[in-house]
Design a protein that fits this description.
There is one protein chain. With about 200 residues, the protein is an all-alpha fold. The protein has one domain. The chain contains nine helices and no strands. The relative contact order is 0.24. About 0% of the residues have low confidence.
Length: about 200
């Protein structure tokens, strides 16, 4: 059972540690908000990620991938939302300073956590297919320790990054978040354009 749990942790850390919208969300909030609030926001992203993981385990990614029209709609809508988020990040960059000025409200952070998690159609499909395939390779008694390994690994990652950056935030240059937000916004916007392009091409 321990081996299955550790397997889930290793697979999860490989997925979550890559630079993506969820990590940008965690980085920005950890540097823009007081530690107590940024930990709360890390909880939001972990809850959203856990729900996505469970949905993927139940076959959501395979369902979207198998339905051409649904996949295309998810790409177009999700891509548009991602572009909107990226532009918003760039527009808010000048207001961002270490120690405040661009801090998110609790409501904004809660909604944002679910947007960056569920408005990323490629991640939903890829993660869904991978976890769905792994689910098929597990015996019934292995499912629970495996999924616990996955979600505990993401908790360690999100909260660990939040605590580390929260402790370092006052030692970082004040203009750091300006460039972090600009670069993050460009990456997110570019990714959104790519998703919309894939959706349009799927219609042709």
């Amino acid at each position: 059972m321990l081996a299955v749990y550790l397997r889930g942790m290793l697979i999860s850390i490989a997925l979550v540690s890559s630079i993506g919208m969820q990590n940008l969300f965690v980085f920005n909030n950890a540097l823009d908000n007081p530690l107590r609030r940024s930990v709360l926001y890390a909880l939001f992203i972990w809850i959203a990620d856990t729900l996505l993981t469970v949905a993927a385990f139940l076959g959501m990614g395979a369902l979207i991938s198998a339905n051409h029209l649904l996949r295309t709609a998810v790409m177009l809508i999700g891509g548009a939302v991602v572009i909107w988020m990226g532009i918003g990040t760039i527009r808010g960059a000048n207001a961002s300073t270490i120690g405040g000025g661009h801090a998110s409200s609790i409501r904004q952070a809660f909604v944002g956590a679910f947007i960056v998690t569920f408005a990323n159609p490629q991640a939903i499909i890829d993660t869904g297919l991978m976890l769905g395939a792994l689910r098929g390779s597990l015996a019934n008694w292995q499912v629970l320790p495996f999924i616990l390994g996955v979600i505990s690994s993401t908790a360690l990652w999100f909260f660990g990054i939040t605590l580390l950056l929260g402790l370092l935030r006052n030692r970082l240059p004040r203009r750091l978040m300006l460039w972090v937000n600009i670069i993050s916004g460009l990456i997110v916007s570019g990714y959104g354009v790519s998703l919309v392009y894939q959706g349009v091409m799927a219609l042709i």
